[in-house]
Amino acid sequence: MEARKNLLVMRLSAMGDVAMTVPVIASFLKAYPKMGVIMLSSPRLSSLFEGMERVTFLPVDTKGTYKGLFGMVKLFKKIKKSYSFEKMIDLHDVIRSKEVRTMVGMSGKKSYVINKGRKEKKRLVSSQEKDRKQLKTSVQRYVEAFEAAGYPFALDFDGLMPKDGPLPERIAKEIRTDKPHRIAIAPFAQHAGKILPLEKTEQIVAHYAERDDTQILLFGGGKAETETFNAWTAKYRNTLSMAGKFSLIEEIQVLNHCDVLLSMDSSNMHLASLVGTPVVSVWGATHPCAGFYGYGQDPSDAVQLDLPCRPCSIYGKKPCARNDYACLNGISNDMIISRLDKYIEKKR
Hints:
By secondary structure, the protein is of the alpha/beta class.
């Protein structure tokens, strides 16, 4: 039997960026049934690839075993000893992946790297007169890296898991299965420039908590987020916190059984996109035109204000130059509720 040929693919973080590799790798494997992928990524994201045939997941703990340059040398030695691959595709293009690319080149093999479009993204946020043209999405850029390596293909992704079927028993014990509608809400993000004021989100929770046919599922983690969720669940009926209850893949299974997700520009948007759950996403300092919109999501479900200062940041890290976050404070609850209602009414 002919040995399977593999591509070495590297994308270490963040969760949303790694999630966006899933449709690409799945489509590649469909197009090239005799090929496989050795996926280098964060250990906590292994479950995103568990169901994929011909994917060998190699966990890369950059804070432990594979920390720093010596860690990358150790990683490559392990790869060279234990795995066979034809080429490397770097979907991250950071110092660590560049170090691995260098070692791949020294071993006599070629590597190909994503074009992140850093210059055009910088122009997008620095220009005084914003030219909000749609830049290539991360998914498109991933596909182009495969094409550069000699593997063109069309995106063909059916979802991480089937849409029909019952919830797993462990999940069904926690979630109200008698409610015909489920709204997932992920109100947090890594940076302040991406977070709708919590009082607004709480008002949306309160609005839907009054419905007898709807359950609200709150997604997030960490001490502060858990405390917020506990306060909301104590105050509003039909509301359940997901914090700390389930593994990553189980949270995705829950999202798979939700009518819609309300999310910031954060990883939950991308996780829901992997199972085809509609996402109403809120955008403040960042903007969908930078290329980080959820795969397959309806552009009209992006809730945002057309302000001359937007976008001011690609990742939402920069503090607000106006000191008022008008891009988020100016968003009304009605703008969000009208979009959420579209998907709840659709299932009536």
